[in-house]
Amino acid sequence: MKVGVLVFPGTNSEDETVRAVQAAGVVAHLVHWSTDPAAAGDFDAYILPGGFAYEDRIRAGAVAAHDKLMDVVIAGAQAGKLVLGICNGAQVLLETGLVPGTGPIRRPSAAFAPNAAGGRFRSVRVYARPVGDRARSPFLAALSGEPITMWASHGDGRLVASAVELQAIESGDHIAFVYTDERGRATDAAIPNGSALGVAGLINARGNVLALMPHPERDSWVFQHRDGPEKLAAMNDTQAMLAPSGGSEIFTAFARALGATSAAR
């Protein structure tokens, strides 16, 4: 199994994402925007990492959504390949229309807009709990269902859409993750950006394309924690520092889902 991690001008989380994927036991390669699209099609799955693709001109993810590499990703998604977008990658997926997938391709029906309270950039550790019908998504099925720690680091993470579209997102079971407290309770206080419905992640109807706003790759090992009980307890212990942390579950689930979808195709 080979995963292509796409890199656009302005992407800045690609190396961490590759390491997290490889730690889950999957081969991952960087795929730069200059790559021949024909060669880019030779992957079993794709990940769009975080950053500021094409400087987020127009809207976050809007320019990258029309990059020639996204033609390959769209074709792969429509063929059933697994696609994961993280932060800026999630914004790109919404701009392509792949997620939530309630309208035509490249006609976005929802967007991740500037955060509440003036669009201020926030970088905070959050909890996000998987929700929705796990039976229709190999990705969600591979998760424990417990809240997962990740880092929300964005200025444009607030899900916005028309009232009709939000109803379609909710009734169509397109909500994959919601922000919660450490006990898994969805509260307004747990939402770092004012996202509608408390959404931290959306998934398409087929269950193979996931747009996730928080960064799991920034909380995949204990050494990435800010000073706290777990990190302090791991001091001077290399093995403990390299122990998996919350976000690693996302990539482990991705690896399991990749195996499931590849077997089904």
Task: Name the features.
alpha/beta; 9-stranded mixed β-sheet; 22% strand; 265 residues; Rossmann fold; two-stranded antiparallel ribbon
Biggest β-sheet, characterized? 9 strands, mixed
Name the CATH superfamily classification.
Answer: Class I glutamine amidotransferase (GATase) domain
Give the strand order of the largest sheet, numbering strands 1, 2, ... along the chain: 2-1-3-4-11-10-9-6-7
Question: Which class do the helix and strand fractions yield?
Answer: alpha/beta
**Structure annotation, total helices:** 9
CATH class: Alpha Beta
* The CATH topology: Rossmann fold
β-sheet strand percentage:
15-25%
How large is the radius of gyration? 17 Å
Q: Give the total of beta strands.
A: 11
How would you sum up this structure, described in words?
The chain is α/β, with parallel strands linked by helices. It has a single domain, classed as Rossmann fold (3-Layer(aba) Sandwich), CATH 3.40.50. Helices cover 28% and strands 22% of the residues. A hairpin with a 5-residue loop joins strand 10 and strand 11.
